[in-house]
Amino acid sequence: MSIACSRMYDVTPQVKAAWTELFHWVSSESGVDLEVYEHKAPAPMEDLWSRTDIGCVFMCGWPFAGWEPTPKIVCAPILSSERYRGRPNYVTDFVVRKDGEIQTLKDCFGGRLGWTVDHSHSGYNAPRHHLQAFTSPNSRRLFGESIGPLVTPRAVIAALLEDRLDVGPLDGWFLDLLRVNEAETAEKLRVVDTTEPSPIPPLVAHHDISPSDLEKLRNGFIAAADAPALRPVLKTLLIKEFVVPNAGDYVHMLDWAESAVRAGYPIPA
Fold it and tell me: Which of 102, 155, 174, 250 can bridge 61 by disulfide, Cβ–Cβ 3.0-4.6 Å?
C-alpha cells in the first residue's frame, strides 16, 4: 500500500474531497493500492517526502530538483487557466489587501514582506528571484521587514488580512482554486505582480517504486482527463489533463537559488 497526498493543494474542504475522489479513481483504474494520507499543516513537508511509502504525493519542484535519491515523477497537471498556456507550469502571485492603498509591487518596498518556508519555490525561491531584479549592488534590501516562516499559503493570507504583512507570495494555482472555491476570501486580495512561470509541482513516488506500478499510475492519471465521471472533479481542481514532465525541467529552480546567493540576496527581503 502506498500513500497519496494533496496537502499542498487542499485549499478548501471541497477541493480536498475532489482530490480524494481522484486518488480513489486512479487507484481503482490502475490497480495500484493508494491510501489517502492527510499530513496536516504544520507538519513539515520534508517528513512526508522522506517516507518510503509515497506513491502519489505533491512535491515542490525546488526540493525535488536537489533531492537524493531523486523521487520518481508520476505526473504533473496542466491547468485549465489560459495564463499557463497549456503547459505544466505555475506562477507566484504577489498579493496585498484589496482594501488597502497598495497598487503596485514597488508601493510595498520599505514595508513588510512575508514568505512561507525556505525550501518552497512558490513561497520563497521564485519571489526572491523576481525581487532580485529590483535590487542593486548598493542596495540588496527592498523591505523593512522580511517575515517568515509562515509555512502555508493560508497563513500568508491570514497575515495580510490581519495587517501583519503588506505583501506576500501565493502559489498561483492555490489562488486560482481559492477564487473558484472560496471567492469571499479571494475577493479580499489584490495581485500586484506575478513571477515568470516555472514547472508546476509534480506528483511523485518513492525512488524505488516498481517500474510496473509507476507506469500504471501514470496511465491512470493520463486516462482521468477522458473519464466522464471525473469531469466535475477536474473542473473543481482546475485541471485540464495530466502529463509526465521531464525531471530536468526543474533544475532551473536550483539555478535561481544559486544566482540569488551569489548576488548577495539569500532571502526575500
Answer: 250
User: For residue 184, what are the contacts with CB-CB under 8 A and spacing of at least 6?
Assistant: none
The CA distance from 225 to 233, in Å, is 10
Decide: residue 248, CB within 10 A, 0-12 exposed, 13-18 middle, 19+ buried.
Answer: exposed
> What is the sign, positive or negative, of the torsion defined by CA atoms of 102, 147, 47, 210?
positive
Helix (H) or strand (E) run with residue 231 in it? helix 231-237
CATH number at residue 180: 3.40.190.10
Query: In terms of C-beta density within 10 A (0-12 exposed, 13-18 middle, 19 or more buried), how is residue 182 classed?
Result: middle
Render pLDDT for 115-146 as a digit per residue (tens, 0 to 9). Answer: 999 999 999 999 999 999 999 888 889 999 99
Q: Which helix (H) or strand (E) holds 78?
A: strand 72-79
- Residue 175 grid coordinates: 489562488
Residue 130, C-alpha cell as written in the block = 523576481
Do residues 46 and 147 share a domain? no
Are 194 and 111 within one domain? Answer: yes
